[in-house]
Model the fold of this input.
Amino acid sequence: MKKKIAFRSGSLRMGGLERILIEVLKEIDKEKYDVTLFIEDDCGDENIFESDIPTEVKYHFLKNKELVSFTERIKSKKKNLIYKVIYNLLMNYEKVVAVKKLKEYLNKEPEIKVLIDFDAGLSKAADKFPDIKKVAWIHNSVPKLKKKKDKIERFGKRLAHYEKVVAICDDMKKELLDIYPHLDGKVERIYNPFNFERIEKLSVDESQLNERERELLKDEYIIAVSRLDNVQKDYRTLIDAYKEAINKGFSFKLYIVGDGPDKGEIEGWIKEANLKDKVILLGLQKNPYVWMKNSKFFVHSSNYEGLPTVLIEAMICGKTVVSSDCPTGPREILKDGEVGKLVPVKDVEGFVKNLLEMGKEHSEFEKEVRERGLDFHKREIITQIEEMINCL
Done:
């Protein structure tokens, strides 16, 4: 008899976490598990990954798209104090709606005995689900994400309501146990799984590109892929470094794949630096791999991470990575710099130096990159996930 399990996450928008969720849902053994997916936000046209949910997986949205879009409209005006108050009230109301809806669904299917909280977004209400085994999946450095001491402490108390906590790299596991010793015995390190065959196939697939994009693909460029969020991603450093490298003879263009709340600010920095013809914002690309494959090398500037998915995807596409040495993930992925370049966070000169060096010899780590990528193959990792589920 199949074991009934459920996954819960925030959205199906474009992002590394969402891509990994879909990969897990595709690869988990449907002969062993009856899987249900709960998604908090129905984002309408922004549900990029909805069509990729396996047909065997039942899924439900916990908040309808009307409520989600209304809250987004209020959020865009929250510089006004009144709208900020309304936005905060709406966010609290949304949480109540989502928890209530999830309870209703789980009451209808009491056979579901395991709930995997894939973005740990249920943590504030985890104690309200005492009759189900829960797993919290942590994708980012907790101190960098929560920042304030009281928030970090509260999060640790909430994690105590889960039977297991997954950290997606060894550094993150160590960090969690250093902060929350009461979680000893609960924390497991499970890398994100990657479908090599799918990524390699998509990396040569130009079918989704329009005529302009096909022309851009022929140019010589380096690439960054991430959400355009300047709190986590450090595009200021990258753009400043790129401008200085151009002034010193760097010849490749910089393509940026992604979208997010700080797109306008990043566009302003590009314009301010007179780089509009050199730095190209490609927006959301459901298939970023074809852009990675045709790039000279991959660049990643960030203030903090969990286990940055895009670094591994770039390596699967055979690309050397130049990355911020931020907590957590890049150093572990790049094996202390043995298979890629690490630059201190916010170090403009460090990025300039590495851009110029890689511009001369961008295939330096080609063999090592490929071998390291194999450590993240889906087969071994899905087995670890299933073993954890079976123990609950």
About this structure: The domain at 3-193+377-390 is CATH 3.40.50.2000 (Rossmann fold).
